[in-house]
Design brief:
2 domains, about 15% strand, Zincin-like, three-stranded mixed beta sheet, elongated, alpha/beta, about 180 residues
């Protein structure tokens, strides 16, 4: 819990290094503080639970991939499998076009749905165009939240970079490029 003399009315909560941080105005009474902390922690937990439920299983990913393929690629990108994997620490996703398999890094779990959708679209596009040429990027940019998702992933990568200024662990260029 952090009190701020500059805050007048707003209350904010977020997770930081496994801890919950609630920012409140310094002028709040102890009773207001207790009420707001309880309310904001509950709100965070609800949001996190909703994110965990969304696309929780490999079957959910397959279903979501089918919806995105139909909406953006007229159903032409049909993977044989789509699954979560725990061994991708340097990529957000990967695709093996010859086997029509897509794997998404479990690091994406809990990220906003538009970000997971972007990575799925990126990998689905590889089923239609294996390289990262102009045709491929035209397919990917059919997804309306591409730029927003790329910005989000770049922010995640920046936030996980080492303090010494080393390159982030994720992709340096377009996220998902090394699939």
């Amino acid at each position: 819990m952090r009190r701020s003399p500059r805050r007048r009315r707003t209350v904010t909560a977020y997770r930081e290094n496994g801890r919950t941080v609630v920012l409140i105005p310094a002028a709040f009474s102890a009773a207001e503080e207790e009420r707001w902390v309880e309310q904001m922690v509950a709100k965070l937990e609800t949001r996190e639970e909703r994110r965990r439920r969304n696309l929780a299983s490999d079957g959910d990913l397959v279903a979501r991939a089918a919806v995105l393929s139909e909406a953006l690629f007229a159903g032409r990108a049909v993977p044989a499998s789509v699954r979560w994997v725990d061994n991708q620490n340097r990529r957000w996703g990967s695709c093996t076009p010859s086997e029509r398999t897509i794997r998404l890094s479990s690091r994406l779990r809990g990220m906003p749905e538009f970000v997971v959708d972007y990575v799925l679209v990126h990998e689905l596009a590889h089923l239609l165009e294996p390289s990262h040429d102009a045709r491929f990027w035209a397919l990917v940019h059919a997804y309306p939240s591409t730029e927003r998702a790329l910005g989000f992933l770049e922010g995640v990568e920046f936030g996980t970079a080492s303090p010494a200024g080393d390159a982030p662990e994720g992709d340096v260029e377009e996220p998902g490029d090394r699939d």
